[in-house]
Write a structure and sequence with these properties.
The chain is an alpha+beta fold and 144 residues long. It is built from four helices and five strands; from the N terminus they run βαβαββααβ. Strands 1-3-4-5-2 form a five-stranded mixed β-sheet. Strand 3 and strand 4 form a beta hairpin. The radius of gyration is 15 Å and the shape is globular. The N terminus is likely disordered.
């Protein structure tokens, strides 16, 4: 999850062109091997979607992204390495996530069962229990 705002890091509206350092951060997974894998998938174009737990957004007081928002993708050293633009955001039940979304996450999952098991493991590592009715945030993005 990441913070999102229409203001730059200095609290002023963006002026174009904007450098990645001026954009709100997008951090995928935890720093280390997982984040490195996810960032590599974004840079290669394999990863064009992501899933977050709505309860985690709410617990952190984080607003959902809006289509058109641009974010700086951070690596494991919290350095910006790319810019993505949010294309779509929707909230759905975990049990309703489809295979197309799962595969577009670019993590190598070829079945919903594998995708679900990997995401449940990640959500559990964050201290959350999930089931089919847990609400998730499904984001689609493009590399800018």
């Amino acid at each position: 999850m990441c913070s999102r705002s229409s203001m730059n890091t200095k609290g002023k509206p963006y002026t174009w062109p904007v450098s990645a350092a001026d954009l709100p951060p997008a951090q995928f997974g935890f720093p280390g091997p997982l984040r490195d894998k996810l960032v590599a998938a974004i840079l290669s174009g394999a990863k064009t979607s992501t899933t977050g737990l709505l309860a985690a957004y709410e617990d952190e007081g984080e607003a959902l992204a809006e289509p058109g928002a641009r974010l700086a993708v951070l690596d494991s050293q919290d350095q910006p390495v790319a810019v993505i633009e949010i294309v779509e955001v929707r909230v759905a039940r975990l049990g309703d996530v489809d295979l197309a979304h799962a595969m577009d996450e670019g993590e190598g999952d070829t079945t919903l069962d594998t995708w679900r098991a990997n995401h449940e493991h990640f959500f559990h590592s964050m201290g959350y229990e999930v089931d089919d009715d847990s609400l998730v945030v499904l984001e689609r993005f493009r590399l800018v």
